[in-house]
What we know:
Helix 1 (3-42) packs antiparallel against helix 2 (47-87). The protein has one domain (3-87). The chain has helices at residues 3-42, 47-87. By secondary structure, it is mostly helical. The N and C termini lie close together (11 Å).
Amino acid sequence: xxxxxxxxxxxxxxxxxxxxxxxxxxxxxxxxxxxxxxxxxxxxxxxxxxxxxxxxxxxxxxxxxxxxxxxxxxxxxxxxxxxxxxxxxxx
Length: 91
């Protein structure tokens, strides 16, 4: 396993992690931003007002994208197992 292999594997892993986490993170970001705009406009400063809708939106995002996330992770795992002989030097 060379330095290039390690770097390539690290980049591949970080890219896949960002792809898998993006739907949940973007949903939480958008909902949090909209709630903060609402709080600024109405001057209501209640912490639970931002937490509960964000939690519900993240749960919905997980329900909608969970199948895709699981498929991506299974595909990535299969790809890693296929790369294993090359990484161990037994090509």
